[in-house]
Amino acid sequence: MSQSLKVFLRSGRDDAVRRFHPWVFSGAIKKMEGPAWDGCHAEVFSNKNEYLGCGIYQDATIAVRLLAFAPERPTAFGPAFWREKLMEALLLRQLAGLTDNPMTNVYRLVHGEGDHLPGLIIDHYNGHLVIQIHATGLYRFIDDIAESLRTIYGDRLQSIYDKSRDTLPATFWQDKLPKGFLTGEAGAVEVIENGLRFIVDIEKGQKTGFFIDQRENRQLLSRYCKGKKILNTFSYSGGFSVYALNAGAAAVHSVDSSVRAMDLCKRNVALNGGEEKHTALIEDAMDHLKSVDHTYDVLVLDPPAYAKHQHVKHKAVQGYKRLNLEALKCIAPGGVLFTFSCSQVVDMRLFHSTVTAAAILAGRKVRVLHQLAQPADHPVNIFHPEGQYLKGLVLVVD
Ligand code: SAH
Predict the structure, then answer these.
(1) Which pLDDT tens digit goes with each residue over 124-153?
(2) Is 197 contained in some domain?
(3) Positions in the chain short of pLDDT 50
(4) Cβ(239) to ligand 1 under 6 A?
(5) What pLDDT digit, counting tens, does each position of 45-91 carry?
(6) pTM (predicted TM-score)
Protein backbone atom coordinates (compact mmCIF):
# COMPACT_ATOMS: atom_id res chain seq x y z
CA MET A 1 0.00 0.00 0.00
CA SER A 2 1.67 3.18 -1.19
CA GLN A 3 0.69 5.59 1.61
CA SER A 4 1.66 3.20 4.36
CA LEU A 5 4.76 3.87 6.41
CA LYS A 6 7.65 1.53 5.66
CA VAL A 7 9.81 0.68 8.65
CA PHE A 8 13.18 -0.99 8.00
CA LEU A 9 14.88 -2.78 10.89
CA ARG A 10 18.57 -2.79 11.69
CA SER A 11 20.53 -5.87 10.81
CA GLY A 12 19.92 -8.62 13.38
CA ARG A 13 16.88 -6.86 14.86
CA ASP A 14 14.36 -8.86 12.84
CA ASP A 15 14.67 -12.06 14.92
CA ALA A 16 12.08 -11.05 17.51
CA VAL A 17 9.53 -10.12 14.83
CA ARG A 18 10.13 -13.37 12.97
CA ARG A 19 9.35 -15.10 16.28
CA PHE A 20 6.01 -13.26 16.44
CA HIS A 21 6.97 -10.82 19.18
CA PRO A 22 4.42 -8.05 18.68
CA TRP A 23 6.58 -4.98 19.44
CA VAL A 24 9.11 -3.07 17.35
CA PHE A 25 11.22 -0.84 19.56
CA SER A 26 12.34 2.52 18.15
CA GLY A 27 15.97 1.48 18.77
CA ALA A 28 15.59 -1.43 16.33
CA ILE A 29 14.66 0.83 13.42
CA LYS A 30 17.28 1.65 10.76
CA LYS A 31 15.13 3.97 8.64
CA MET A 32 11.54 4.84 7.83
CA GLU A 33 9.97 5.83 4.52
CA GLY A 34 6.66 7.65 4.13
CA PRO A 35 4.57 9.81 6.45
CA ALA A 36 4.81 8.77 10.09
CA TRP A 37 2.00 9.78 12.45
CA ASP A 38 0.46 8.19 15.54
CA GLY A 39 -2.01 5.56 14.36
CA CYS A 40 -0.70 5.21 10.81
CA HIS A 41 -0.49 1.84 9.09
CA ALA A 42 3.12 0.62 9.21
CA GLU A 43 4.73 -2.19 7.25
CA VAL A 44 7.86 -3.66 8.79
CA PHE A 45 10.80 -4.95 6.73
CA SER A 46 14.10 -6.60 7.53
CA ASN A 47 17.42 -5.02 6.76
CA LYS A 48 17.28 -7.02 3.52
CA ASN A 49 13.94 -5.61 2.50
CA GLU A 50 11.87 -8.72 3.36
CA TYR A 51 8.32 -7.99 4.49
CA LEU A 52 7.87 -9.21 8.10
CA GLY A 53 4.52 -7.90 9.27
CA CYS A 54 2.36 -4.82 9.71
CA GLY A 55 0.87 -2.87 12.54
CA ILE A 56 0.19 0.54 13.99
CA TYR A 57 2.89 3.17 14.37
CA GLN A 58 3.32 5.47 17.34
CA ASP A 59 6.10 7.96 18.08
CA ALA A 60 7.21 6.18 21.27
CA THR A 61 9.64 3.58 22.62
CA ILE A 62 7.38 0.87 21.23
CA ALA A 63 7.24 2.33 17.73
CA VAL A 64 5.11 -0.33 16.04
CA ARG A 65 2.61 -2.71 17.56
CA LEU A 66 2.26 -5.57 15.11
CA LEU A 67 -1.22 -6.85 14.31
CA ALA A 68 -0.29 -9.20 11.45
CA PHE A 69 2.78 -11.24 10.54
CA ALA A 70 3.99 -12.35 7.10
CA PRO A 71 2.53 -13.75 4.92
CA GLU A 72 -0.57 -11.96 6.26
CA ARG A 73 -0.52 -8.43 4.83
CA PRO A 74 -3.74 -6.45 5.35
CA THR A 75 -3.55 -3.05 3.67
CA ALA A 76 -5.62 -1.34 6.37
CA PHE A 77 -7.10 -2.11 9.78
CA GLY A 78 -10.73 -1.44 8.93
CA PRO A 79 -13.96 -2.94 10.24
CA ALA A 80 -13.44 -6.28 8.44
CA PHE A 81 -10.04 -6.74 10.09
CA TRP A 82 -11.42 -6.02 13.56
CA ARG A 83 -14.45 -8.24 13.03
CA GLU A 84 -12.20 -11.18 12.21
CA LYS A 85 -9.80 -10.61 15.11
CA LEU A 86 -12.53 -10.01 17.68
CA MET A 87 -14.41 -13.08 16.47
CA GLU A 88 -11.23 -15.12 16.96
CA ALA A 89 -10.98 -13.77 20.50
CA LEU A 90 -14.59 -14.69 21.22
CA LEU A 91 -14.08 -18.21 19.86
CA LEU A 92 -11.19 -18.72 22.27
CA ARG A 93 -13.44 -17.77 25.22
CA GLN A 94 -16.04 -20.17 23.83
CA LEU A 95 -13.39 -22.90 23.69
CA ALA A 96 -12.53 -22.18 27.33
CA GLY A 97 -16.19 -22.61 28.31
CA LEU A 98 -16.71 -18.99 29.27
CA THR A 99 -19.46 -17.95 26.86
CA ASP A 100 -23.06 -19.15 27.15
CA ASN A 101 -22.16 -20.35 30.62
CA PRO A 102 -25.11 -20.16 33.03
CA MET A 103 -22.75 -19.89 36.03
CA THR A 104 -20.40 -17.18 34.73
CA ASN A 105 -21.20 -14.23 32.49
CA VAL A 106 -18.07 -12.18 33.04
CA TYR A 107 -14.90 -12.75 31.04
CA ARG A 108 -12.06 -10.90 29.34
CA LEU A 109 -12.75 -10.84 25.62
CA VAL A 110 -9.45 -9.32 24.53
CA HIS A 111 -6.21 -9.49 26.47
CA GLY A 112 -3.84 -7.32 24.41
CA GLU A 113 -0.72 -9.13 23.29
CA GLY A 114 -2.18 -12.46 24.45
CA ASP A 115 -4.81 -12.11 21.71
CA HIS A 116 -2.36 -10.69 19.16
CA LEU A 117 -4.02 -7.32 19.63
CA PRO A 118 -1.34 -5.32 21.45
CA GLY A 119 -2.61 -2.39 23.50
CA LEU A 120 -6.27 -3.47 23.51
CA ILE A 121 -8.27 -4.72 26.49
CA ILE A 122 -11.98 -5.55 26.31
CA ASP A 123 -13.92 -7.02 29.22
CA HIS A 124 -17.40 -8.51 29.03
CA TYR A 125 -19.85 -8.03 31.91
CA ASN A 126 -23.17 -9.73 31.26
CA GLY A 127 -23.71 -8.07 27.87
CA HIS A 128 -21.85 -4.85 28.75
CA LEU A 129 -18.43 -4.37 27.15
CA VAL A 130 -15.70 -2.11 28.51
CA ILE A 131 -12.82 -1.11 26.22
CA GLN A 132 -9.47 0.13 27.47
CA ILE A 133 -6.90 1.19 24.91
CA HIS A 134 -3.30 1.43 26.12
CA ALA A 135 -1.60 2.92 23.05
CA THR A 136 -2.53 6.31 21.59
CA GLY A 137 -1.96 5.07 18.02
CA LEU A 138 -4.64 2.42 18.47
CA TYR A 139 -7.30 4.88 19.66
CA ARG A 140 -7.94 5.91 16.06
CA PHE A 141 -9.67 2.56 15.57
CA ILE A 142 -12.06 2.71 18.51
CA ASP A 143 -15.15 3.31 16.36
CA ASP A 144 -14.29 0.40 14.04
CA ILE A 145 -13.70 -1.81 17.07
CA ALA A 146 -17.06 -0.81 18.57
CA GLU A 147 -18.84 -1.38 15.25
CA SER A 148 -17.36 -4.87 15.02
CA LEU A 149 -18.45 -5.65 18.58
CA ARG A 150 -22.02 -4.59 17.72
CA THR A 151 -22.01 -6.94 14.74
CA ILE A 152 -20.57 -9.85 16.69
CA TYR A 153 -22.76 -9.58 19.79
CA GLY A 154 -25.97 -8.46 18.04
CA ASP A 155 -28.99 -8.55 20.37
CA ARG A 156 -26.91 -9.79 23.28
CA LEU A 157 -25.14 -6.44 23.52
CA GLN A 158 -26.39 -4.00 26.17
CA SER A 159 -23.68 -1.35 26.10
CA ILE A 160 -20.13 -0.52 25.07
CA TYR A 161 -18.14 1.80 27.32
CA ASP A 162 -14.84 3.36 26.33
CA LYS A 163 -12.73 3.67 29.49
CA SER A 164 -9.48 4.68 27.79
CA ARG A 165 -9.43 7.96 29.71
CA ASP A 166 -7.69 6.02 32.51
CA THR A 167 -5.11 4.28 30.31
CA LEU A 168 -4.01 6.93 27.81
CA PRO A 169 -1.85 9.85 28.98
CA ALA A 170 -3.46 13.14 30.04
CA THR A 171 -1.59 14.93 27.23
CA PHE A 172 -3.51 12.82 24.72
CA TRP A 173 -6.83 14.13 26.04
CA GLN A 174 -5.86 17.80 25.94
CA ASP A 175 -7.70 18.54 22.70
CA LYS A 176 -10.29 15.78 22.76
CA LEU A 177 -12.79 14.08 25.02
CA PRO A 178 -12.98 10.40 25.93
CA LYS A 179 -15.98 8.87 24.23
CA GLY A 180 -17.65 7.23 27.23
CA PHE A 181 -20.62 5.11 26.14
CA LEU A 182 -20.41 4.16 22.47
CA THR A 183 -23.62 2.12 22.58
CA GLY A 184 -26.39 2.02 25.16
CA GLU A 185 -25.82 2.91 28.80
CA ALA A 186 -25.27 1.09 32.05
CA GLY A 187 -25.69 1.86 35.70
CA ALA A 188 -24.46 -0.70 38.18
CA VAL A 189 -24.11 -3.93 36.22
CA GLU A 190 -24.84 -7.22 37.96
CA VAL A 191 -22.81 -10.24 36.88
CA ILE A 192 -22.48 -13.80 38.05
CA GLU A 193 -19.18 -15.57 38.49
CA ASN A 194 -19.21 -19.27 39.36
CA GLY A 195 -22.81 -18.77 40.46
CA LEU A 196 -22.04 -15.86 42.82
CA ARG A 197 -23.47 -12.38 42.29
CA PHE A 198 -21.40 -9.22 41.95
CA ILE A 199 -22.15 -5.57 41.23
CA VAL A 200 -19.62 -4.09 38.83
CA ASP A 201 -19.19 -0.32 38.70
CA ILE A 202 -17.81 -0.03 35.18
CA GLU A 203 -17.61 3.78 35.12
CA LYS A 204 -16.09 4.53 38.51
CA GLY A 205 -14.61 1.18 39.55
CA GLN A 206 -10.93 0.30 39.29
CA LYS A 207 -9.56 -0.98 35.96
CA THR A 208 -12.61 -1.98 33.89
CA GLY A 209 -14.64 -2.50 37.07
CA PHE A 210 -13.78 -5.98 38.33
CA PHE A 211 -10.70 -8.18 38.74
CA ILE A 212 -11.75 -10.93 36.35
CA ASP A 213 -8.28 -12.48 36.44
CA GLN A 214 -8.80 -13.92 39.94
CA ARG A 215 -11.88 -16.01 39.03
CA GLU A 216 -10.24 -19.43 39.31
CA ASN A 217 -8.08 -18.49 42.27
CA ARG A 218 -11.17 -17.34 44.18
CA GLN A 219 -12.79 -20.68 43.47
CA LEU A 220 -9.72 -22.49 44.76
CA LEU A 221 -9.92 -20.44 47.97
CA SER A 222 -13.42 -21.85 48.60
CA ARG A 223 -11.92 -25.29 49.26
CA TYR A 224 -10.00 -24.00 52.27
CA CYS A 225 -12.66 -21.91 53.98
CA LYS A 226 -15.29 -24.06 55.71
CA GLY A 227 -15.49 -23.15 59.40
CA LYS A 228 -12.35 -20.98 59.13
CA LYS A 229 -11.45 -17.44 60.06
CA ILE A 230 -10.37 -15.56 56.95
CA LEU A 231 -8.56 -12.29 56.33
CA ASN A 232 -8.88 -10.86 52.81
CA THR A 233 -6.51 -7.93 52.36
CA PHE A 234 -6.68 -5.59 49.33
CA SER A 235 -10.23 -6.87 49.03
CA TYR A 236 -11.53 -4.34 46.42
CA SER A 237 -15.12 -5.35 45.56
CA GLY A 238 -14.94 -8.40 47.82
CA GLY A 239 -14.28 -11.19 45.32
CA PHE A 240 -12.36 -13.48 47.65
CA SER A 241 -14.58 -12.53 50.64
CA VAL A 242 -17.81 -13.51 48.87
CA TYR A 243 -16.38 -16.90 47.88
CA ALA A 244 -15.10 -17.52 51.41
CA LEU A 245 -18.47 -16.68 52.98
CA ASN A 246 -20.32 -18.79 50.48
CA ALA A 247 -18.01 -21.71 51.28
CA GLY A 248 -19.03 -21.59 54.95
CA ALA A 249 -16.26 -19.52 56.56
CA ALA A 250 -16.84 -18.81 60.28
CA ALA A 251 -15.72 -15.18 59.88
CA VAL A 252 -14.33 -13.05 57.06
CA HIS A 253 -12.51 -9.74 57.54
CA SER A 254 -12.06 -7.63 54.41
CA VAL A 255 -9.44 -4.87 54.40
CA ASP A 256 -9.07 -2.16 51.76
CA SER A 257 -7.87 1.43 52.01
CA SER A 258 -10.48 2.70 49.56
CA VAL A 259 -13.91 3.75 50.86
CA ARG A 260 -15.48 3.27 47.44
CA ALA A 261 -14.02 -0.25 47.15
CA MET A 262 -15.32 -1.17 50.59
CA ASP A 263 -18.82 0.09 49.70
CA LEU A 264 -18.80 -2.25 46.73
CA CYS A 265 -17.44 -5.07 48.86
CA LYS A 266 -20.24 -4.65 51.38
CA ARG A 267 -22.87 -4.55 48.64
CA ASN A 268 -21.51 -7.73 47.10
CA VAL A 269 -21.35 -9.55 50.41
CA ALA A 270 -24.98 -8.56 51.09
CA LEU A 271 -26.07 -9.58 47.60
CA ASN A 272 -24.93 -13.10 48.41
CA GLY A 273 -26.40 -13.13 51.93
CA GLY A 274 -23.10 -13.14 53.84
CA GLU A 275 -23.29 -9.96 55.99
CA GLU A 276 -23.58 -11.70 59.35
CA LYS A 277 -20.13 -13.17 59.29
CA HIS A 278 -18.43 -10.29 57.51
CA THR A 279 -16.40 -7.39 58.90
CA ALA A 280 -15.41 -4.53 56.58
CA LEU A 281 -12.31 -2.56 57.54
CA ILE A 282 -11.18 0.57 55.70
CA GLU A 283 -7.53 0.50 56.59
CA ASP A 284 -4.01 0.19 55.20
CA ALA A 285 -3.36 -3.53 54.78
CA MET A 286 0.13 -3.41 56.25
CA ASP A 287 -1.09 -1.45 59.30
CA HIS A 288 -3.82 -4.02 59.80
CA LEU A 289 -1.41 -6.96 59.58
CA LYS A 290 0.88 -5.31 62.11
CA SER A 291 -1.92 -4.55 64.54
CA VAL A 292 -3.76 -7.88 64.75
CA ASP A 293 -3.31 -9.63 68.08
CA HIS A 294 -4.79 -12.93 66.97
CA THR A 295 -4.26 -15.30 64.08
CA TYR A 296 -6.17 -16.17 60.93
CA ASP A 297 -6.67 -19.63 59.42
CA VAL A 298 -6.63 -18.35 55.85
CA LEU A 299 -5.15 -15.11 54.59
CA VAL A 300 -5.32 -13.51 51.13
CA LEU A 301 -2.73 -10.96 49.98
CA ASP A 302 -3.62 -9.44 46.61
CA PRO A 303 -1.90 -6.04 46.49
CA PRO A 304 -1.94 -3.70 43.48
CA ALA A 305 1.13 -3.89 41.20
CA TYR A 306 4.08 -2.69 43.30
CA ALA A 307 6.34 -2.35 40.24
CA LYS A 308 5.10 -0.95 36.96
CA HIS A 309 8.65 -0.55 35.55
CA GLN A 310 11.97 -2.40 35.65
CA HIS A 311 13.75 0.39 37.53
CA VAL A 312 11.49 0.04 40.57
CA LYS A 313 11.68 -3.74 40.65
CA HIS A 314 14.05 -3.88 43.60
CA LYS A 315 11.84 -1.61 45.69
CA ALA A 316 8.80 -3.68 44.78
CA VAL A 317 10.53 -6.89 45.84
CA GLN A 318 11.28 -5.34 49.24
CA GLY A 319 7.61 -4.36 49.51
CA TYR A 320 6.42 -7.90 48.73
CA LYS A 321 8.89 -9.31 51.25
CA ARG A 322 7.71 -7.04 54.08
CA LEU A 323 4.06 -7.67 53.30
CA ASN A 324 4.46 -11.46 53.15
CA LEU A 325 6.51 -11.45 56.34
CA GLU A 326 3.75 -9.64 58.25
CA ALA A 327 1.15 -12.00 56.79
CA LEU A 328 3.16 -15.08 57.78
CA LYS A 329 3.25 -13.79 61.35
CA CYS A 330 -0.57 -13.61 61.45
CA ILE A 331 -1.31 -17.14 60.31
CA ALA A 332 -2.42 -19.81 62.76
CA PRO A 333 -0.42 -23.07 62.81
CA GLY A 334 -1.59 -25.14 59.85
CA GLY A 335 -3.06 -22.01 58.25
CA VAL A 336 -3.03 -21.18 54.58
CA LEU A 337 -1.72 -18.09 52.77
CA PHE A 338 -2.87 -17.10 49.29
CA THR A 339 -0.26 -14.60 48.14
CA PHE A 340 -0.24 -12.82 44.76
CA SER A 341 1.74 -10.41 42.67
CA CYS A 342 0.37 -8.74 39.54
CA SER A 343 3.58 -6.82 38.75
CA GLN A 344 4.62 -7.77 35.25
CA VAL A 345 8.32 -7.20 35.95
CA VAL A 346 8.35 -9.56 38.94
CA ASP A 347 8.23 -13.04 37.42
CA MET A 348 7.26 -16.25 39.23
CA ARG A 349 10.86 -17.13 40.00
CA LEU A 350 11.54 -13.78 41.63
CA PHE A 351 8.22 -13.80 43.44
CA HIS A 352 8.88 -17.30 44.74
CA SER A 353 12.31 -16.34 46.08
CA THR A 354 10.90 -13.16 47.63
CA VAL A 355 8.28 -15.15 49.51
CA THR A 356 11.00 -17.63 50.51
CA ALA A 357 13.00 -14.74 51.98
CA ALA A 358 9.93 -13.69 53.97
CA ALA A 359 9.48 -17.28 55.22
CA ILE A 360 13.12 -17.37 56.39
CA LEU A 361 12.62 -14.12 58.30
CA ALA A 362 9.36 -15.39 59.80
CA GLY A 363 11.15 -18.53 60.99
CA ARG A 364 8.22 -20.76 60.07
CA LYS A 365 7.94 -23.99 58.13
CA VAL A 366 6.23 -23.21 54.84
CA ARG A 367 5.16 -25.54 52.05
CA VAL A 368 3.82 -24.69 48.60
CA LEU A 369 0.43 -26.24 47.83
CA HIS A 370 -0.44 -24.50 44.56
CA GLN A 371 1.26 -22.24 42.06
CA LEU A 372 -1.27 -19.94 40.46
CA ALA A 373 -1.55 -17.77 37.39
CA GLN A 374 -4.09 -15.92 35.29
CA PRO A 375 -6.93 -17.85 33.62
CA ALA A 376 -7.51 -18.78 29.95
CA ASP A 377 -9.29 -15.54 29.06
CA HIS A 378 -5.98 -13.78 29.87
CA PRO A 379 -3.85 -15.85 27.47
CA VAL A 380 -0.10 -15.39 27.21
CA ASN A 381 1.55 -15.20 23.80
CA ILE A 382 4.46 -17.61 24.24
CA PHE A 383 6.68 -15.19 22.31
CA HIS A 384 5.71 -12.36 24.66
CA PRO A 385 6.29 -13.84 28.12
CA GLU A 386 5.88 -10.35 29.62
CA GLY A 387 2.15 -11.05 29.26
CA GLN A 388 2.34 -13.48 32.19
CA TYR A 389 1.64 -10.88 34.87
CA LEU A 390 -0.43 -12.57 37.58
CA LYS A 391 1.25 -15.11 39.79
CA GLY A 392 0.31 -16.56 43.11
CA LEU A 393 1.38 -19.11 45.68
CA VAL A 394 -0.79 -21.00 48.11
CA LEU A 395 1.24 -21.89 51.17
CA VAL A 396 0.52 -23.97 54.22
CA VAL A 397 2.29 -22.59 57.27
CA ASP A 398 3.07 -25.10 60.04
N1 SAH B 1 -8.44 -8.98 45.37
C2 SAH B 1 -9.25 -8.05 44.66
C3 SAH B 1 -8.46 -7.11 43.77
C4 SAH B 1 -7.42 -6.29 44.50
S5 SAH B 1 -7.01 -4.81 43.66
C6 SAH B 1 -10.32 -8.80 43.88
O7 SAH B 1 -10.29 -10.03 43.83
O8 SAH B 1 -11.18 -8.14 43.31
C9 SAH B 1 -6.07 -3.99 44.84
C10 SAH B 1 -6.86 -3.28 45.93
O11 SAH B 1 -5.91 -2.84 46.90
C12 SAH B 1 -7.63 -2.05 45.51
O13 SAH B 1 -8.98 -2.18 45.88
C14 SAH B 1 -7.01 -0.89 46.30
O15 SAH B 1 -7.97 0.05 46.76
C16 SAH B 1 -6.40 -1.61 47.46
N17 SAH B 1 -5.24 -0.98 48.11
C18 SAH B 1 -4.20 -0.33 47.53
N19 SAH B 1 -3.28 0.00 48.44
C20 SAH B 1 -3.73 -0.45 49.64
C21 SAH B 1 -3.21 -0.44 50.97
N22 SAH B 1 -2.03 0.11 51.23
N23 SAH B 1 -3.92 -1.03 51.94
C24 SAH B 1 -5.13 -1.60 51.68
N25 SAH B 1 -5.68 -1.64 50.43
C26 SAH B 1 -4.98 -1.08 49.43
Answers:
(1) 999 999 999 999 999 999 999 999 999 999
(2) no
(3) 1
(4) yes
(5) 999 999 999 999 999 999 999 999 999 999 999 999 999 999 999 99
(6) 0.97
Based on the residue annotation, tell me whether 342 is a catalytic residue of this protein: yes
Q: Which domain holds residue 156?
A: 79-190
Closest CA to 280 of 339, 235, 317: 235
| Ligand 1 centroid to residue 302 C-alpha, Å | 7
CB of 257 sitting under 6 A from ligand 1: yes
In a domain, 391, yes or no: yes
Atom of ligand 1 nearest to the CA of 236: 13
Ligand 1 pocket mutation, candidates 194, 214, 242, 257, criterion most atoms within 8 A of CB: 257
Give distance in angstroms: CA of 98 to centre of ligand 1: 26
Verify that 248 and 374 share a domain, yes or no.
yes
Phi-psi region of 169 (alpha: psi -120 to 50; beta: other; left: phi over 0): beta
Nearest to 335 by CA among 302, 294, 299, 286: 299
* Residue 304 Cα to ligand 1 middle (Å): 6
Asked if residue 124 is part of any domain, the answer here is: yes
